[in-house]
Amino acid sequence: MTHLIVVGGSDAGISAALRARELAPDTDVSVVVADEYPNYSICGIPYYFTGEVAPWQSLAHRTVADLEAAGLTLRPDTLATAIDVADQRLEVRTPEGCREWMPYDELVVGTGALPSRVGIAGLDLLGPGDGVHVIHSMGDTFALERSLQERHPASVIIVGAGYVGLEMAEAFTARGLQVTQLQRGGEVLSTLDPELGTLVHEELTAHGVRVRVGTTVTGVEKTPGGLTVRGADEGGAFEQTADLVLVVVGVRPNTELLQRAGAGLGAGRAVVVDEHMRTGLPRIWAAGDGVITHHRLLGETYLPLGTTSHKQGRTAGENAVGGNRSFAGSVGTQVVKVFDLVAARTGVRDHEAVGVGRTPVTVASVADDHKAYYPGANEIHFRITGDPTDGRLLGAQLVGRRGSEVAKRVDTFATALHCGLTIDQISDLDLAYTPPLGSPWDAVQVAAQTWSARLGQTRARS
Q: Which residues pair with 316 in a beta bridge?
């Protein structure tokens, strides 16, 4: 009997374990989980805080009973501490604190990522007991919930305005806190061009969030008035005090286990894997937020996404039991809801395209989400990026009201990117139409046609 050990109980690890059992039911699969919460949706945590998801157990993709019924042996509260590559065994620390060696035939590592705290003084001295939080695990979730219940804070400063930061701004607002959001870059949601980030900024402001962009945070400390965040902005020194502080400035790959075993590091200091999710170490595979991602336009990059982790984990699990599946690559498709607005992107932006030798042209446009004569039509703002030399689609960015199917429309662009379509070919797609939901030319196609028309005008003038 083959003995497969999977390290990690989140997206990549559980996907690997389930796929291995599905294809090879006689495989003995053990899953080493560092905490008590295997297969919980970390992406759903902000909606627990808004009150839209309750109780917290609802965040489980599958219950422990579901996982055990699928044939997995779970080892909760067990920390993987070392890999003996030569003897094919994994060292773990048990819940009792004892050291134990687990032999394996194949090993899949999905240790994920850790919250980044780089460059902010004081964070190594402050934690949940002081009212300073990160939000990356169920343990972080419970710690923050305790702070909200015991401290009864009136105000919070969020350091960072990426996806999780924006979702938590909505969550804290729903809980009645005054939210101040600090962003180092020139606009919130830096994965979008500033022209569209501005729309998200306006949505935050409309719901009472105080947004400060161009603000670099250098330190956090406890003061008589609460927690004081210090830094600098365009006006010079910056200082503000609140009852709580949430730091969400990105993540870093959790590579220590594999790095000490001899695995190489690549983009973002993530573990290098090939398209089969092999690490280069014999019989050791890796997947998820701790490894590099093959991007179909950019090549090797670091892009931690839940969707990617699921796919990579499934690939690793299949190959660990004798398969030959390849991870097909990512195009970086992302979407976020911010109050009543939805922002999405896929592919690359101008600066990224230039970095891989393209000559991009980006064209902005606006199209209604459905026929204007049917009540409730809303505008969707687009920025389409393509290469004028061959007409190939390189990327798309969208912002629209919730209910305008922004997520599904970015999926159309993502599919086109995956298939290598030109922007003109998007107009040939047979997309659904009925007046309450769309138009004979869908908004996606209107945006694509605007790009082509703008390119034609530019060529005519030249």
A: none
Q: Which residues contact 80 (CB under 8 A, 6 or more apart)?
A: 7, 32, 34, 90, 91, 92, 109, 111, 257
Query: Residue 73 is encoded by which pair of tokens?
Result: 């042996």
State both tokens at 443. 């908004």
Q: At what angle do helices 406-419 and 443-461 cross, to 10 degrees?
A: 60
Residue type at 92 in one-letter notation = V
Q: Which amino acid is at 42?
A: I
DSSP at 195: H
Per-residue pLDDT reduced to its tens digit, 280-320? 999 999 999 999 999 999 999 999 999 999 999 999 999 99
pLDDT in tens, 172-186: 999 999 999 999 999
CA neighbours within 13 Å on the CB side: how many for 382? 29
d(CA 130, CA 406): 39
In the numeric block, which tokens belong to residue 415? 């599919």
Q: Within 10 Å of residue 127's Cβ, how many Cβ atoms?
A: 12
Enumerate the β-bridge partners of residue 121. 219
Per the listing, tokens 């008590």 go with: 36
Structure tokens at 15: 């996907």
The Cα 5–Cα 393 span in angstroms is: 41
